[in-house]
Amino acid sequence: MDDLGQRLLAASYLEGDFVLRSGRRSRFYLDKYLFETQPDLLRDIAKGLAQKLPAYRPIDLLAGPELGAVALVTALALESGTPFVIVRKGAKGYGTDKAMEGRAEAGQRVVMVEDVVTSGGAALQAADKLREAGLEVAALLCVVDREEGGGEQIEAAGLTFDPLFTATSLGIKKSV
Questions:
Q1: Quick one: which of 6, 4, 27, 3 has its CA closest to 146?
Q2: Element (H or E) spanning 140, and its range?
Q3: Alpha-carbon distance 39 to 55, whole Å?
Q4: Is the pLDDT of residue 35 over 90?
Q5: pLDDT grade, residue 52 (50/70/90)?
Q6: Nearest to 63 by CA among 102, 25, 117
Q7: What angle (nearest 5°) sits at the alpha carbon of residue 14, between those of residues 113 and 76?
Q8: SS3 162
Q9: Has domain 3-166 been given CATH number 3.40.50.2020?
Q10: Residue 107: half-sphere exposure toward Cβ, Cα within 13 Å
Q11: What gap in Å lies between CA 141 and CA 157, rounded to an integer?
Q12: Entry pTM
């Protein structure tokens, strides 16, 4: 495991009894807010993700689902110079009542960014919203794939899935 992976674990790896967004229970948790709120760690994660972007060019936009991926997509946009949109969980019900914030035009090619993927459900919901807006979702990059079926679900939905780290590469035992 490289230095960035070690730093990510040191900042965000917790052990205990946790209920994940997917509803599953786990003996470990990667607290994305603990790695996304550390400027040096966030910057280096964005650099790692930016190194993956050339494989998906041309790219018009990046996209990150609220709330967890907002810091990531912002950092990646700053690192790569690529504009981004934020995908809301739901239309806000006031103001412009948009399900997506930022400028996007039908036909644009998008790379999504996610923090930690378990089942892939949140990422797939965000991808559906982007597709409904007429955008072409080229790939989903994530910081950590917990290797609990999310990658397979994402690929089954027709997206390329490209994690920066996996639970295995971070040395986390897969028995949850």
A1: 27
A2: strand 136-145
A3: 26
A4: yes
A5: very high
A6: 102
A7: 20
A8: strand
A9: yes
A10: 0
A11: 15
A12: 0.91
- Which are the contacts of 111, defined by CB distance < 8 A and separation ≥ 6? 53, 56, 59, 61, 62, 63, 137, 138, 139, 140, 141
| Two structure tokens written together for 69 | 């991926």
Q: What are the CA-CA distances from residue 163 to residues 114, 159, 160, 169 (Å)? A: 9, 13, 10, 10
Whole-angstrom Cα distance, residue 22 to residue 112?
19
- To which residue do tokens 């994530």 refer? 142
User: Is the model's pLDDT at 176 over the cut of 50?
Assistant: no
Q: Please provide residue 60's backbone torsions phi and psi, each rounded to the nearest 5 degrees.
A: -95, -35
Contact 174, 168 (CB under 8 A): yes
d(CA 167, CA 148): 9
Q: How far, in Å, CA of 124 to CA of 136, rounded?
A: 13
Tokens 């674990």 correspond to: 9
pLDDT in tens, 53-101: 999 999 999 999 988 899 999 999 999 999 999 998 765 555 555 678 9
Please give the single-letter amino acid code of residue 65: P
